[in-house]
Design brief:
Helix content is about 25%, strand content about 20%. The chain contains eight helices and 15 strands. It has helices at about 45-60, 100-115, 150-160, 200-210, 215-220, 240-250, 260-265, 270; strands at about 15-20, 65-70, 85, 90, 115-120, 135, 140-145, 165-170, 180-185, 190, 210-215, 230, 235, 255, 275. A three-stranded mixed β-sheet has the order 2-1-15. Strands 3-4-5 form a three-stranded mixed β-sheet, sandwiched between helices. The protein starts with 15 loop residues before the first strand and ends in a 30-residue tail after the last strand.
C-alpha cells in the first residue's frame, strides 16, 4: 500500500515523491505539441504504468506518497508542476494555461495538510511558474524560460530560497519544460539536450556541468531526460542505447519504467513525481511577502539571470 502521509523526520536524506493517481487522466484539451484529442490515453494501461512507476521508485529506495486526481482536471497526474518544495516549504505553481490553474490549489492543499508551509507570491498576475521548469544542479537552481514560466518567477525563487537561480531560454516548443531537456545525475554530471535552448542557455549550462552527457534532439524525444535519480538508479521512461551505455559506464543502474500513455499528454516520469525536497540544502527561506520590486540579478554565482 502506498503511504498517504509524511512520517516524522521526513525531510532527511531519503528521496520522497508525491504522485497523483490517474483516476481521471485523459487528453481533453491541447496545450502542447504532444497532445491530441484524437490520440487519447488508455485508462487501464495508464493505471498499469502508474503502478509500475510507483513500484520502481520504491524499489530504487524512494518513499512514495500520492493523492487522487479529480474529474475535470485531466493533467493532475503531473504534480511536479504544482509547486517547488524545499526545506518543508513550497512555492505554489502559477499556470499560464487556464485549463491547468485549478491543479495548483489541490496540490497546495495536500502539501499544507502534510505540514509544509506556503511561501506567498508577490502581487503580479503576469508572473507564471510551472515546476517542470525548475531543476536543481548542485547548489544552483536552473529555471526554464519559455512558454510556461516567466523570467520574473526565477527572480522570486532566488529571493525566497536564497539560492542562485539561472534562467535557461527554451526555443523548441516540443520541450516546453526544462526537465524535458535537462536531467541532473549528481553534482557533476547531467543528461542534457543543448539544441533545445538558445545560445546563451547553452553557454550557461556548459559552464555549470563538468561532466555532461549530451544528447541529440532525437534522443531527447524519447523523454530520456525526463527521468528521476534515486541514489545510483536512474528511473527512465525509455533509454537510447548510447545513453544507457554512458550511464552504465558511470556506475548508474538504469531502470526503465514505461509511461507511454502519459507521454501522449506530453509528460514523462519527472513530470509525474514531485520531489518533496528539491533543494537539499536551501539557504534562508523567506516566508514573508516581497517588500519591493527589486530584481535579483548579477553574474553567474549571484542571484537570478
Amino acid at each position: 500500500m502506498i503511504s498517504a502521509g509524511l512520517p516524522t523526520g521526513s525531510l532527511k536524506s531519503q528521496k520522497k515523491f508525491l504522485l497523483c493517481s490517474p483516476d481521471h487522466f485523459d487528453v481533453t484539451f491541447e496545450i502542447n505539441p504532444w497532445m491530441s484529442a484524437e490520440r487519447r490515453p488508455d485508462r487501464k494501461k495508464s493505471w498499469r504504468e502508474w503502478e509500475g512507476l510507483v513500484a520502481n521508485l520504491r524499489a530504487a529506495g524512494a518513499e512514495v506518497h500520492h493523492f487522487p486526481s479529480l474529474p475535470g482536471l485531466s493533467d493532475m497526474v503531473f504534480p511536479t508542476d504544482v509547486g517547488i518544495v524545499a526545506g518543508g516549504c513550497f512555492v505554489r505553481g502559477r499556470f499560464r494555461h487556464p485549463e491547468r490553474r485549478d491543479e495548483a490549489a489541490f496540490g497546495a492543499t495536500w502539501l499544507l495538510e502534510h505540514g509544509f508551509a506556503e511561501i506567498p507570491w508577490p502581487d503580479d498576475p503576469d508572473m507564471y511558474l510551472e515546476g517542470g521548469d525548475v531543476v536543481r544542479f548542485g547548489d544552483v537552481l536552473l529555471c526554464g524560460n519559455g512558454p510556461r514560466t516567466s523570467p520574473a518567477a526565477a527572480m522570486h525563487l532566488s529571493r525566497v530560497f536564497d539560492k542562485q537561480v539561472v534562467t535557461v531560454p527554451i526555443v523548441d516548443p516540443r520541450f516546453y519544460h526544462l526537465d524535458m531537456s535537462f536531467c541532473p545525475l549528481d553534482d557533476r554530471r547531467a543528461i542534457y539536450a543543448p539544441d533545445v535552448w538558445d545560445q546563451e542557455g547553452r553557454r550557461v549550462i556548459e559552464s555549470l556541468v563538468p561532466e555532461p552527457l549530451v544528447i541529440s534532439i532525437d534522443e531527447a524525444l524519447s523523454f530520456c531526460a525526463n527521468s528521476v535519480v534515486v541514489g545510483n538508479t536512474v528511473v527512465m521512461p525509455s533509454c537510447p542505447p548510447r545513453v544507457r551505455s554512458a550511464l552504465l559506464d558511470w556506475g548508474f543502474t538504469v531502470c526503465i519504467s514505461p509511461v507511454d500513455e502519459f507521454i501522449k499528454a506530453g509528460g514523462g516520469i519527472r513530470c509525474m513525481a514531485l520531489d518533496l525536497n528539491l533543494i537539499a540544502r536551501p539557504g534562508h527561506v523567506s516566508l514573508d511577502p516581497p517588500s519591493d520590486d527589486r530584481p535579483v540579478g548579477g553574474e553567474l554565482g549571484s542571484g537570478a539571470r
